[in-house]
Design a protein that fits this description.
With 586 residues, this protein is α/β, with parallel strands linked by helices. The protein is 53% helix and 10% strand. Bound molecules: arginine. The site of arginine (ARG) has 10 residues, from helix 12 and strand 10.
């Protein structure tokens, strides 16, 4: 192994991979008679006292090799030849192998972040396509805060995959073809208020939907009429078609406004209706494969043997289902894009649905083995007041949430910087407010139910978006002060000196950025990156407090200013991947 790894691999392999590859060789060398082939994986220790990385593989090998784990670890360490980049290899505790890197190598890896166009993020997705299906709101219902998680998590996974070199097709699978349209058409015909429709179309559509839905609940004739309108629409009735198209148009205007504010972009927006023509063929295919069969007039796929219940693919009234559309969608995506994965981001309540149609797609080879199907589900977001549901009509609309985020951010800005020009303050309030909402979501494990509170989201002290933005802006101002005091000197032309332990610690954390991005993407957990950025900013804080910057002697000073620049780079790249902007002045 040499440290000039970019000669061998396109881009930089992440540190874990580099070291694991070497340590695997050490295990093999220590046990030439076999049994230790798969050992050697390393992870960061998280505690400088134990070195930079550790390998715990001696423990599970004890049985196979019939040796105490500590003996195994010792044998590996005794037989290992250290590459130039490793300073120390030691056995600790019951059989851990701890690895400490050379300072010069740590400095080299930290510095490389600025010179590599991908900030050393490995291009492991290059040549592969992923389709990410996210946001996907429903027509004629305003987006509410329940949609925020799919949009924000989906957009982060989208950015993270692009950073790894994947070709990403971000597809907004709008719900424009569901059973709700019968209900909305009836509501629209009987209850619509033309003035309100002109004023706030999405809210008015929602209002008529809620009214019609409520009526359908205790009025069977109404319910039947709704169903009939739906079938008419699906069979191409011109009047219902025209209404439906108008609903889509009006809704899309609202969605686009929200995406504009969130700075989320899709490559394609294919609603469920896009697949309409293919649905009959899908059902036929399932029948031919012997998977689907008739049951009480409906067509079903019985998956109860696998504990996945029954999936209805055509209802007794002839209408197709959500699942049928999703099967047709996989088929279309596989044919058109040959993706290595299709990722879906929705809330946890849809888990069974995804398991069912994934299972069906595999069985009839609509999803070939080369296409992984992944449902990334998340817990619901609550405000302390409770949850939200369109049907009960008490939604907190996403736009209202964003408005409030911006106005609260504005208050904070005004109190700290009363002199800031209005225009500048407005832009900043949007960057901070929206960043706060996104970060509050992304900093949590997707699978947890999150309770959103303004105090936490906008806090300048804790683990929040504004805190990280503020940290970034402070570093920019340190760099600006340096340029003022030492005009014409380029600190980045000086070597990094890691004399103080805090400098070493900070550089090591910087060097961990590439593998953090990889891990966040491949585990579908943007929170891995958020945690890392918060941790990095805290280490930066100690660095700032513990050592002088501008008052240090020449070259130590430049090295520190250069480190500041690298932290700023990583914060801004990392927050950028989470969809959060980094203004230079706050
Ligand atoms: N429109 C659905 C909803 O709001 C989400 C669609 C997710 N994507 C999919 N291919 N099923 O619940």
């Amino acid at each position: 192994m040499n440290s000039n790894v970019d000669e061998q691999t396109p881009g930089f392999p992440v540190l874990e991979d580099l070291l694991s590859c070497w340590l695997k060789g050490c295990f093999a060398k220590a046990f030439p008679e076999g049994g230790a082939e798969n050992a050697g994986a390393v992870t960061a220790t998280g505690n400088p006292a134990f070195g930079d990385f550790q390998c715990n593989d001696a423990m599970p090998l004890a049985k196979t090799l019939r040796l105490p784990p500590r003996k195994i670890a010792e044998k590996v360490v005794e037989n290992a030849s250290l590459p130039g980049v490793v300073k120390k290899l030691e056995v600790a505790g019951p059989g851990f192998i701890n690895i400490t890197l050379e300072d010069s190598f740590v400095a080299e890896r930290a510095a490389a972040l600025a010179s590599d166009e991908h900030a050393c993020v490995p291009q492991c997705g290059s040549g592969q396509t992923v389709v990410i299906d996210y946001s996907s709101p429903n027509v004629a219902k305003p987006m509410h805060i329940g949609h925020i998680r799919s949009t924000v998590i989906g957009a982060a996974l989208d950015n993270l995959h692009r950073a790894l070199g994947f070709r990403v097709i971000a597809d907004n699978h709008i719900g424009d073809w569901g059973t709700q349209f019968g209900i909305i058409i009836m509501g629209f015909r009987h209850f619509v208020d033309k003035d309100k429709l002109a004023e706030a179309p999405a809210s008015e559509l929602e209002r008529v939907y809620v009214a019609s839905y409520a009526k359908a609940k205790d009025d069977e004739a109404w319910m039947n009429q709704c169903r009939a309108e739906l079938v008419k629409l699906q069979q191409g009735d011109p009047e219902n078609r025209a209404l439906w198209q108008e609903f889509i148009r009006l809704s899309q205007v609202e969605f686009d406004r929200v995406y504009g504010r969130l700075e989320v972009h899709f490559d394609i927006t294919r609603g469920e209706s896009y697949y309409h023509e293919a649905l009959a063929g899908v059902v036929e295919r399932l029948e031919k494969a012997g998977l689907a069969r008739e049951s009480d007039g409906a067509t079903i796929v019985d998956l109860s043997d696998e504990d996945l219940g029954v999936c209805i693919v055509r209802k007794s009234d002839g209408a197709f289902n959500y699942a049928t559309t999703d099967i047709a969608t996989v088929d279309s995506r596989v044919r058109e894009f040959s993706p290595s994965k299709i990722i879906y981001v929705t809330d946890e309540r849809q888990q069974l649905h995804f398991k069912q149609f994934f299972n069906i797609c595999r069985k009839v080879d609509i999803a070939p083995d080369s296409t992984e199907l992944m449902h990334v589900w998340f817990g619901l977001m609550r405000l302390p007041e409770g949850t939200f549901s369109t049907r009960q009509g008490n939604v907190i609309k996403l736009e209202a949430l964003l408005d409030e985020a911006e106005s609260r951010a504005m208050t904070v800005i005004k109190s700290g910087r009363p002199d800031m020009p209005e225009d500048e303050a407005k832009v900043l309030a949007a960057q901070i407010g929206i960043g706060a909402v996104k970060y509050a979501d992304l900093s949590q494990d997707p699978r947890t139910l999150i309770t959103f509170t303004w105090d936490k989201a906008l806090s300048l002290e804790g683990n929040s978006g504004p805190y990280l933005q503020y940290a970034y802006a402070r570093i920019c101002s340190v760099r600006a002060k340096y340029s003022e005091q030492f005009p014409g000197i380029d600190p980045d032309a000086y070597p990094l000196i890691l004399a103080e332990s805090i400098e070493r610690e900070l550089s090591f954390k910087l060097a961990m950025f590439p593998s953090t991005v990889k891990k966040a993407a491949l585990t579908y957990r943007p929170c891995v990156l958020a945690d890392y950025l918060y941790d990095l900013s805290q280490t930066y804080s100690s660095f700032y407090q513990r050592v002088p910057f501008l008052k240090a002697e020449e070259s130590v000073r430049e090295s520190r200013i250069r480190l500041c620049g690298l932290v700023a780079l990583v914060l801004s790249k990392g927050l950028g991947l989470l969809g959060i902007e980094t203004p230079e002045r706050i």
